[in-house]
Structure formats: structure tokens, C-alpha cells
Amino acid sequence: MNLSTIDQIIVVLYLVSIMSIGFAMKRKAAKGMSSYFLGGRRLPWWALAMSGSSSYFDITGTMWIVSTFIALGLKGMWVHWLWGFPITAFYLAYMGKWIRRSDAMTGAEWMKTRFGSGKAGDIARLSYTLFAILTISALLGYSAIGMGKFGAIFLPFSPLVCAVLILGITGVYVIIGGFHGIVRVEIVQTVVLSAGAIVFAVIGYMHFDAAAFAAKVPNGWFDIIPSAQPESLQGLVSGGTDYSLFGALVAVWVAKGLLLCLSGPEQLYDFQRFLAAKDERDASKLGALWGAIHTVRWCFAMAIAVMAIMGIGNAALDAQLKADPETALPLIIGSMLPVGLVGFMLAALLSGFLATFSSTVNGGAAYLVKDVYQRYMNPKADNKTLVRVSYLSSALLVIVGLVISVFGTSINTAFLWIFGTLAAGILPPNVLRWYWWRLNGQGYAAGVFGGMALSLGQVFLDTMYLETPLPLYIGFPVIAIASTIITIAVSLLTQPTDIETLKNFYRKVQPAGAWRPARAAVLADEPHFKKQSSFALDLFNTAVSMVGIIALYVSMLYLILHRLEVAFGLLATTATTVIILYFTWYKNLPPASEPMSEDVENMMEQRDELLLEGRS
């Protein structure tokens, strides 16, 4: 499937434009670590929200979402609990402000705030750094698989060559521009991507024919309520997953999604967005807008699924689509849109890919530079040296992602390992770190290392000894329970975190849960200490937000399917939750505060590592 000259020009002009922004931001990014990785904490909250939302709207993930709707119908929405799709409800209610209050640069550096700067904090930080690098490398490999499949539809090359070309060219602006460049590019990308998604949603809505569509889908396709063993899914295997025991899978997806929401950002660059906010008020607001902007992804994905099910009208392409539903997105765009609109949609989808790709690379480089190079190899490095190492780290991550993609062929398989198997071992310590005072650095590190070992062990077992991979509803609970036991046991068998660290963490971050000793220590020093908001109110706002976000996203699916009564009923539910949240959430946001200047932020980041080196 070849691109017309006009479409090629549109795509090339778009790539040149965004790369120009990256080069234009080089001077700002080169000021220091805070500038390169957090934008000096001077970027507006709405820009960070646009950046975060577009980072979630990647091509690979959208190709996977479309394939789940094609295979499972509306029940495919349950699969997306696996990555915690309503997590922005937690961001806006309390998790965003908790993260921002820590004043760290990376999730690993956050461990210093939680576990102290001694050996316990150091091992926790190291364990999180290794987990972050493993996860980010896997995410880049997962992105490369999707981009290879996508590019091979339009370019006369193999998926691997396409991945190398696309990641290599776009990697330049990511490496040079830093966080300043990424956020500014992603503002443009969000506008282009949202416009493209809306245009295609309208096309899908107009293309839908209720009678013809109903004749092409199995009974139960329109049912969103799950059952233990849906008749329509018996024997269905898609992307390496057997959906026969759908009820068991739903239980695992929802459990994993809720644990992820409670643990905070898992995709690691999400953490970076909240740390980059000016203050906790902005961190909360960006969480709300993040979820709202992401709405267009769902109507777009269902529109693609509808058009794929209705058929392309070309026997060869329809056969290719049936053989690999993950290619539905590029096949529909390349075969069913007119010249010019194809180029525009490719530019829009490249926006989604670039947003995720750039955020992942920049986030991964932050861990390599801040938590490995500066922490262990060269704590006295000046800002120029650190920025140069940042360039090298970003380039290294791109290469690693391409290498990983050589060994992967299925988007679904890669996604399930990252967000299912690997997450099963990491989530227990990540949840406990926020809500249980007795978790210490040793317990956290043991849980993370043990979880990673168990996750990699399952990969070895699946590939070397089992004819079919272990189902998620068996592997996930076994690994999660084992990781929980390891985390709690090691914590109880070792010394608790010193009370000064716990006291400072409680006073600064204001977490909820089992924090009685820390709370008592704070009150002993400050009898009038009071949290900015009660956790009971935060939980209420979380529940209301979840209802609103889920109703909003699902309404988009029914809208494309011409089920207008259901769609507008769900939209009315979302509107009601917005009114409630205006009084219970927005009116109770923390007051605004003025952050330090960008130059001071850069100097303080460098000084902190020198102080840590002096203590160790």
C-alpha cells in the first residue's frame, strides 16, 4: 500500500516541524538536570496535561485497543482495566498532589524522601531504578513492534526496518530537546491528534450501518456486562490470549487496574509530569484535564473497529485484517481514506506515537543519569557533563528498544507481559509505600527484586517448558501474592525506617493509611498540624471521578454505534459528577504557590547529589 505524493509531503512537513521545535528548545534543555527532565518546574499545568494525555495515546496501544474491540465487542472495554484506564480519577483526587509534594526529580529519587538517604533508602532507590530501566526498555520495544507493523503497511520495508527508520529519525528531536521540547511538541501533537481522532470518529459514525453490522458480529458483541464463560468467546484466541474463561480474566484485569491506581503512575514518565508541575494545585488540575483530553481516543478506536468489521472491500486486505487484527488501524486508514486525509491521519497518529516515545525515552534517561550516573559514577559532574550524558542515555534507550522489538511479534503479548506479568510483582511494594509506615527500604527492594525475578522466571517457563503461556488469571495472582509476602516479611524482619524520615515524609507528602507512629511524632512537634484535606473527602472525590470518567469513555463507544439513548444517558452522568466535583474537589484545591527559579532548581539538584555522596 503506497502513499501518494501529497500524503508523503504532509507527513514529511509534519516531522520537520516537530523536529524544529526540539532543536529550538536545545538551549533551554541544556541549562541543567531540572531543565532537561522537568522543564525547570515552570511549565503551565494545562501544557503538562496535554503532554501526559498525548503520551497515553500511542499508535501501538491504539492498535491493540482496536483489536480487542474487534475480537470481544463492547466487552473489550474490560481489558483496559489492565492498564488502569480510570487512573486519572486518582491523579486529580490525591495522587497528583502527593507526588508533587515530594519535590523529587524521578520516581527513584522519591525513595530518598520515603526511606531516607541511608543504606535502606539507597537500596530502595536502586531497586526502583532497575525496575524503571527494565520497564522503559520493554515499553520502547513494545512501541517499536507497533511502529514496525504500522510502517510496513505504507513503506516497502520489513517491520524491523520501518521501526529503525521511524525511531531513528524521531529520536533526534527527543534527545536534543529535553523536557522543554517534549512538552511544547506534545501541545502541537495533542491538537493534531485530537483533531484527527474526531475527524475519523465522524467518518466511522457515518460509515456505520446497524443492520449490516449486526449481521457481521456474533451474538453478544453488543453486551458490555461480563459473564464467567460467554458463549460467543468460547475457543476464541486472539493475540496469544484465550478468552474462554472471560470472568476470571476480568477479575484479574480489574484487580490489577485498581492496584495500579492505588500505587500511582506505573509508566514512570507519568510520575515526571506531576513532579514537573509548579505546585500541588497544578498537579491536581493537570490530572483532571489529562483524563478529559483522553476521551477522543475511545470514539476513534471504536470507529476503526466498526470500519474494520464492516470490511474494506478488498479480498486480500480483508484476509490480512482477519489474520492479524492488530493491523486494522493502518489498513483502514490506508485503504478507506482519500488522498490528503491519509497524510493528515498519519501525521495525527505519528503525534500519538511520538508523544509516548519521547516521554518514555526522556523518563528513562532521567533514571540512567540521575539515579545511576550521577548517584554512583560521577556525583560531582557539572551541568554540561550531565546534559551530554543525558543525550547518550536517550540514544542508548532507543537502541535497546529496537533490539527488544527484534524478538517480539505480537503487541498483545508484549503488552500483557509489561502490564500483567511484570506489574504483578512490582505492584504490592508500590502500593504499600504510600499507605503503610512499616514498609522500609529493605522490604521495598526485596519486593521489587523478587517481583522482577518471578516475572522473568515466568517468561523463561513459558518459552522453555510450556506449550502455551501460563494464563494471566494464574500467573498474576501467584506472583502478586508471592511479592506481597516477600515485601511484608522482609520489612518486619528488618529495622523500621527512622522516625525522622517518616515524620518528614508524613508532614511533607501527607499520605493516608496506617501512619500512626509518624502522625504521633509530627503532632508531638506541631500540636496544631492538620492535613490540607481529609482522605475521606479525597476518596469520595476519587469514587465520583471514576464514575464520571468511565461513563464518559464508554459513552463514546455507544455514540459511534448509534446507541444514542445510552450514550447521552452516560454523558448526563458525567455532567452530574462534574457539578459535584466542582464543590467537593475544585473548591478545596490547595492554594497556589510560586516555585523556585529554573536556575535555582538546577543548582539544588546538583547540590543534593553532592550531599548524598558526602554522607555515603
Please outline the helices and strands:
Blueprint: H1 5-24, H2 26-29, H3 33-38, H4 45-56, H5 59-72, H6 88-101, H7 110-115, H8 119-154, H9 159-207, H10 210-216, E1 237-238, E2 241-242, H11 246-263, H12 269-275, H13 280-293, H14 296-310, H15 315-323, H16 328-336, H17 341-377, H18 383-406, H19 411-435, H20 441-464, H21 472-493, H22 499-509, H23 516-525, H24 535-560, H25 564-584, H26 598-615
Antiparallel strand pairs: 1-2
Short characterization:
The protein is 74% helix and 1% strand.
Structural commentary:
There is one protein chain. Helices cover 74% and strands 1% of the residues. It is built from 26 helices and two strands. Strands 1-2 form a two-stranded antiparallel sheet. α6 (88-101) crosses α24 (535-560), α8 (119-154) packs across α18 (383-406) and α24 (535-560) runs antiparallel to α25.
Low-confidence stretches: 29-36, 609-613
- Can you summarize the main beta sheet? 2 strands, antiparallel
Overall outline:
globular
- End-to-end distance: 59 Å
Number of strands: 2
User: What is the averaged pLDDT score?
Assistant: 81
Q: Helical percent range?
A: over 70%
The tally of helices reads 26
Q: Spell out the helices and strands N to C.
A: HHHHHHHHHHEEHHHHHHHHHHHHHHHH
- Strand content is under 5%
- In order across it, which strands form the biggest sheet? 1-2
Query: Structural class per helix/strand content?
Result: mainly alpha
